[in-house]
UniProtKB/TrEMBL annotation:
Protein name (Swiss-Prot/TrEMBL): Diketogulonate reductase-like aldo/keto reductase
UniProt keyword list: NADP, Oxidoreductase, Signal
Record family assignment: Belongs to the aldo/keto reductase family.
First and last residue of the signal peptide: 1-23
Residue ranges occupied by any Flavodoxin-like domain in the UniProt entry: 52-204
InterPro entries: AKR, Flavodoxin/NO_synth, Flavoprotein-like_sf, NAD(P)_OxRdtase_dom_sf, NADP_OxRdtase_dom
NADP-dependent oxidoreductase domain location: 232-474
Xref: PROSITE patterns: PROKAR_LIPOPROTEIN
Keyword field contains NADP: yes
Lineage: Bacteria, Bacillati, Bacillota, Erysipelotrichia, Erysipelotrichales
Molecular functions (GO terms): FMN binding; oxidoreductase activity, acting on NAD(P)H; oxidoreductase activity, acting on the CH-OH group of donors, NAD or NADP as acceptor
SUPFAM superfamilies, per the entry: Flavoproteins, NAD(P)-linked oxidoreductase
Length: 482
C-alpha cells in the first residue's frame, strides 16, 4: 500500500516550517531451548527468540574459528565448535609427514571422535558449517559431524578456509553425507577475510540474522549490521535547540543512550553538542539521523554535512526520511559511507510493504531498521511481520499518537486499566507493548520526568491477554500523512 506523497509531504513540511518560524519539523518472551552442551555458546536472556541458526566449525589453528565467530556475531546466532575427543598436536597437523592428519585424510573411512554432541540440534533450521581444507578436502571430523545428526529439512551453508585451495569437491563430498539437507553452494575464504566480507556473503546467500534479536537484560537489540542499538530512547522532533540539548542531557543522566534526530528537525547540532558534552564515551551512545528528500540529489555531501553539524566522527544509524525521487541513489551514497566508516548502519523511514518490494532489489546492504508510525490506534500489523521476517528491526514513531493525539491515547480505558494493574503509567504500558512486539521506541519529550519514566520499562511485563487487549485497539488511524 502506498501511503506517501512526496510533493504533499514537502508542501506540508514547508508550511509547518513557516508556521513554526522554521524551527523544527513539524515479543513476547522467548526462551532459547536450553542445551547442556558446553561447547554451544548462546545468549542467556529469557526474552530473546529461540535461535534458528547455528554456526558450526572445526578449526585446528584458529583461522576458521575467527570467521565463524564473525558469522555468529552477524547472525546473532549460537555457535558450536567441533572439538576433537583427541586434540590435534602440532605434530599431528604437520602435513606431508604422514602424521595423524595426513593419515586421516588418506582414509576415506576415518571418523575422528567429537568430544561433545549438540543435544538440541532440532531447534536449528540453518547450519553455517566452517572447516579448513586438508589435502583438498574437509577434515574427516566434519564427516563424523555430518553422520551424527539428521539434517532433513535443514539448510547447510558450508565454507572453508585454506592457504590457497578452493572449496573444490570438499563441499559436494560432504553433501553426500547429509543428502537430505538443503545444501547451499559453499565458498572458500582466505585467512585475512574481513567481517564485512563475511556479512556480504551471508547477505548474498540470504542467511538473515535471527529476527527480533531483543536482549531484555541489556535493553538492546542487535541490528542486522551487527551493531547493538538500545531498544528505547528519545525522539527529538519539534524540540528547539535548548529543549533538545536539555532533554538529551536528561536522557543520558537517566541511563538512556538512543537519540533520534533528522536533518529536518534542525537540531542535529544540539544533539551532537549534548553527546560531546555528556562525558559519556561516544561508543556508548547511539545517534540516529535522517536525510531529507531535498538532500537525495547530493546525498554524499549531505552525509558529510550531517557529520559536521553533529560534530561526531561517525553516525550510528542514518535513515532516508521518506521514499521519493533519487532515494535509491541516496541509499547507495549511504552504502558507500558505511564502507568509508562514516556511518555504522543504514535504514529507511516511512517505507511500507509495497515500497520495500520495489526498493530492496535495487540496493546491496539490507536496511538495518525501518522507522514508521506505530501506536495502538495505528499498529501496522501488515508491515511489522514483513519487515521482521527480512531480519530488519522495526522502530515506531508517534508511540503516543503524536502531539495533539497523546491525551486520547494516554487516557484510553484499556490502557489505563492495564497501567493501574501494573502500577505503572499508560505511557509505560504503550512503550512496553511495543517492545514486546519487537518494536523499538523513540518517544519524544522535553520533560525530564517523562524522559525518566519512558526509560523505566523493565520492572513489569504485559501478559498475553493484555497484549491482545491492546492489539484489539487498532483502528488503522494514521496521525500523519506519510
Ligand atoms: N521518521 C519520521 O517520519 C518521524 C515522524 C514523526 C516522528 N518521528 C520521531 O519519533 C519521535 C516520537 O514522535 P513524537 O515526539 O512526535 O510524538 P510522541 O512520542 O507520540 O509524543 C510526544 C508527546 O508525548 C508527550 N509525552 C512523552 N512522554 C510522556 C509521558 N511519559 N507521559 C505523558 N506524555 C508524554 C510529550 O510531552 P512532554 O514533552 O511534555 O513529555 C509530547 O507532547 C519524534 O520525536 C521523532 O524523533 C519520526
Ligand atoms: C593437514 C593439513 C592439510 C592442509 N592442506 C591444505 C590444502 O590442501 N590446501 C590449502 O590451501 N591449505 C591446506 N592446509 C592449510 C589450511 O587449510 C589453512 O591453513 C586453514 O586456513 C587452517 O584453518 P584453521 O586455522 O581453522 O585450522 C592444510 C593444513 C593442514 C593442517
Amino acid at each position: 500500500m502506498k501511503r506517501h506523497n512526496p510533493l504533499a509531504a514537502m508542501f506540508m513540511i514547508s508550511l509547518l516550517c513557516i508556521l513554526s518560524a522554521c524551527g523544527n519539523e513539524l515479543k513476547q518472551n522467548h526462551t532459547i531451548a536450553a542445551t547442556d552442551n558446553p561447547t554451544v555458546k548462546e545468549s542467556n536472556n529469557e526474552d530473546t527468540v529461540e535461535k534458528k541458526t547455528l554456526v558450526v566449525y572445526f578449526s585446528a589453528t584458529g583461522t576458521t574459528k575467527t570467521l565463524s565467530e564473525h558469522a555468529a556475531d552477524i547472525l546473532n546466532s549460537d555457535i558450536y565448535e567441533i572439538v576433537p575427543a583427541i586434540p590435534y598436536t602440532e605434530e599431528d597437523l604437520a602435513y606431508y609427514t604422514d602424521g595423524r592428519a595426513d593419515q586421516e585424510q588418506q582414509d576415506n573411512e576415518a571418523r575422528p571422535a567429537i568430544s561433545e554432541p549438540i543435544k538440541n540440534i532440532e531447534q536449528y533450521e540453518t547450519i553455517v558449517l566452517g572447516y579448513p581444507i586438508w589435502h583438498g578436502q574437509a577434515p574427516r571430523i566434519i564427516s563424523t559431524f555430518l553422520e551424527s545428526y539428521d539434517f532433513s529439512n535443514k539448510t547447510i551453508l558450508p565454507f572453508c578456509t585454506s592457504q590457497s585451495s578452493g572449496i573444490g569437491t570438499s563441499d559436494t563430498n560432504l553433501h553426500s553425507l547429509a543428502d537430505n539437507a538443503k545444501w547451499l553452494e559453499g565458498r572458500r575464504f582466505a585467512a585475512d577475510t574481513t567481517r564485512e566480507t563475511i556479512k556480504e556473503w551471508l547477505d548474498s546467500m540470504a542467511i538473515k540474522p535471527d529476527k527480533n534479536a531483543f536482549d531484555f537484560d541489556k535493553h538492546v537489540v542487535k541490528l542486522n549490521s551487527g551493531y547493538e542499538m538500545p531498544m528505547m530512547g528519545l525522539g527529538t522532533y519539534s524540540l528547539s535547540d535548548d529543549e533538545c540539548y536539555n532533554s538529551i542531557i536528561a536522557l543520558l543522566k537517566n541511563g538512556g543512550r538512543l537519540i533520534d534526530t533528522a536533518y529536518m528537525y534542525h537540531n542535529e547540532a544540539s544533539v551532537g553538542r549534548a553527546v560531546r558534552e555528556s562525558n559519556i564515551a561516544r561508543e556508548e551512545i547511539f545517534v540516529t539521523t535522517k536525510l531529507y528528500l531535498t538532500q537525495y540529489s547530493d546525498a554524499a555531501n549531505a552525509i558529510d554535512e550531517a557529520l559536521e553539524r553533529l560534530g561526531l566522527d561517525y553516525i550510528d544509524l542514518m535513515l532516508l526520511h521518506h521514499p521519493g525521487e533519487g532515494d535509491v541513489e541516496a541509499y547507495k551514497a549511504m552504502e558507500q559511507a558505511v564502507k568509508d566508516g562514516k556511518i555504522h548502519s543504514i535504514g529507511l523511514s516511512n517505507w511500507y510493504v509495497e515500497e520495500l518490494e520495489a526498493f530492496l532489489p535495487q540496493i546491496s546492504i539490507t536496511p538495518a531498521l525501518i522507522q514508521n508510525e506505530i501506536h495502538p490506534y495505528y499498529q501496522e500489523n501488515d508491515v511489522i511481520p514483513y519487515v521482521q521476517n527480512l531480519g530488519i528491526t522495526m522502530q515506531g514513531w508517534y508511540p503516543f499518537g503524536g502531539r495533539g493525539h497523546t491525551s486520547e491515547l494516554l487516557s484510553d480505558k484499556t490502557i489505563t486499566t492495564i497501567a493501574a494493574a501494573h502500577n505503572v503509567t499508560p505511557a509505560q504500558v504503550i512503550l512496553r507493548w511495543n517492545l514486546q512486539k519487537g518494536v523499538t521506541v523513540i518517544p519524544g519529550s522535553s520533560n525530564p520526568n517523562h524522559i525518566q519514566e519512558n526509560l523505566d520499562l523493565f520492572t513489569f511485563e504485559l501478559s498475553q491477554d493484555e497484549m491482545a487487549q491492546i492489539n484489539a485497539l487498532d483502528r488503522n488511524e494514521k496521525h500523519d500523512w506519510y
